[in-house]
């Protein structure tokens, strides 16, 4: 599974509940509830994963920039 077994199992349970309870409270079919719930969960998981990847990349860039600044400072100290 792309997002892990734990999230997959939770998603499956949420979709199953939506499939059972959705048609009882609306005129939308059970299949439509299943599809809609699954798509919304997938989009939500993708957004969360993308945001965490961006944070990791940003942290790595910050570390690289700070290392470069340290190297420039060390060079300036040793060459002066």
Outline of the structure:
By secondary structure, the protein is mostly helical. The chain is built from 2 helices and no strands.
Biggest beta-sheet profile? none
Residue fraction in strands: under 5%
Q: Structural class of the helices, strands and pairings?
A: mainly alpha
Coarse shape: rod-shaped
Q: Are there runs of 5+ residues with pLDDT below 50, and where?
A: none
Tell me how many strands there are.
Answer: 0
Q: What number is the mean pLDDT? A: 87
Distance between the termini: 56 Å
| Cα gyration radius (Å) | 24 Å
Helices and strands, in order, run as HH
Number of helices: 2
What is the share of helical residues? over 70%
